Known about the structure:
With about 500 residues, the protein is an alpha/beta fold. The chain contains 19 helices and 18 strands. It binds adenosine-5'-triphosphate and magnesium ion (MG). The site of adenosine-5'-triphosphate has 15 residues, from strand 7, helix 7 and helix 15.
Amino acid sequence: MTRPKPSRSPGDSAADAPAEVATGVPPSEEEPSRPTLLVVDDEEAILEAVSLTLASEGRVLVARNGREALELLETEDVALILTDQRMPGMNGVELLERARQIRPQAIGILLTGYTDIDALADAINRVQVYGYVQKPWELNDLRLTVRRALEAYELARENRELTRRLEEAIAQLRQENVLLRREAGKRYCFDRVLGQAPSMQELFDLLEKVADTHATVLLTGETGTGKDLVARSIHYQGPRRSAPFVAQNCGALPEGLLESELFGHRRGAFTSAVEDKRGLFEVAHGGTIFLDEIGETTPGMQVRLLRVLEGGEFRPLGSSEVRRVDVRVIATTNRDLREAVEGGRFRRDLFYRLNVVHIHLPPLRERCEDIPMLTEHFLRASNERLGKEVEGITRAAMDLLLAYTWPGNVRELANEIERAVALAGSSRRIDEAMLSDHLRSSVTVRAPREVDGGEIETWSLSLALEGLQRRMIQSALAAAGSKSGAAQKLGIPRQSLQKMIKRLGIE
Ligand SMILES: Nc1ncnc2c1ncn2[C@@H]1O[C@H](COP(=O)(O)OP(=O)(O)OP(=O)(O)O)[C@@H](O)[C@H]1O
Ligand SMILES: [Mg+2]
């Protein structure tokens, strides 16, 4: 058996010996889980005896004095330091005190020949050593003390590890919480305007701010993008909500009639004016007037509108009396008004008056991620209107909806769904065949679009649940070999299973 040797003791005959004691214990690389123990004593015989005793408890390193021990501590991950108290140069308590700077987690045990327990106890308190072993010791006692100390070390290590993991988990939860809050902060609607695309989030933020004011708003966007809906939402979410909202399509009437509609007339102002009539500006007093398709107005009409917008003043047809109203104006146009201004077809001053707040509604093809939620919304509405119970839409049909370019935007989608629901008969789900020929033929050449990075499946909860039901029923049937067995497995009555099998079209 090899004698334990102190390590790194220059001038010593054993100076070249490895720090590790070859006591028949394999080196640490092979057993990384074994704790490393450092035994420090100036007496060779004691080093040897202690090393042999503790070989069963871990990998034992030895040092003949405090200096050597500190050097070893610099490089070795020592779990326990067992040191003689009385050594030349540095005593045991001093060593443990300094060892604490290098390996704060290491457990210290003092070997002492002194009977002066009080003085030692004081020292022990100072460095908070785990304990002491009095010389001469019983080998078994020594081993037991070390074993307990190592258990304490292991517990403390586990405790630290758990604390670290807990802290990590807390940090992660915090992070997730932030993300969730951000997600929860995502809005799916402003009043009845639905959407989850980033452009719609921006729109909702803007609508929120604008609704609170009395500012004139110009809404632009392709047909069916929701200009009408948004105008109403601005009014009903704003301070004028309890006053009237009146709408007039400026493109639908010839100039004279439009003028009479908006500003009213006196009896006899023209042939058919058999009595006085209040104009919409007066009706809307305190509220909002919605001027749809304002780009279609004639130059004469534009002048009158400018006057109301500038000072709230107008004169009914056939009247010399000027009326004054407080009306918020929300206008829309499908046309490029700026271009109309450049082309001399629309008054620049009126354009600026209208364009105080400009809100553009993006076309549906630029926010495909809204198609699933809008589909669900219109499905519910159509079911209600038509007294149907269509529950969802097949994946293939949804792919078609996602691939189509929707020139009629949300209105076209609403109509498509209503039509499909009407055609669904007793089917529970809209499939491709129920979509219009026009839609199907337009998208055959297009690749399906992806929603939110390919998460098509997440669009419909009911569809996802159906998929789950189908898979569970199929595997229960396969496992049980009979319907009653499968029903039992699934914990539902046989008749319910029978119904579900029929509804889900399971073979
Ligand atoms: N974001 C949306 N969320 C829910 N429904 C919407 C949305 N956008 C539009 N709709 C619905 O689509 C239909 C068409 O919208 P709306 O009449 O407001 O469009 P528009 O822009 O005024 O069209 P047009 O230029 O042809 O007058 C309406 O039934 C409306 O409720
Ligand atoms: Mg409209």
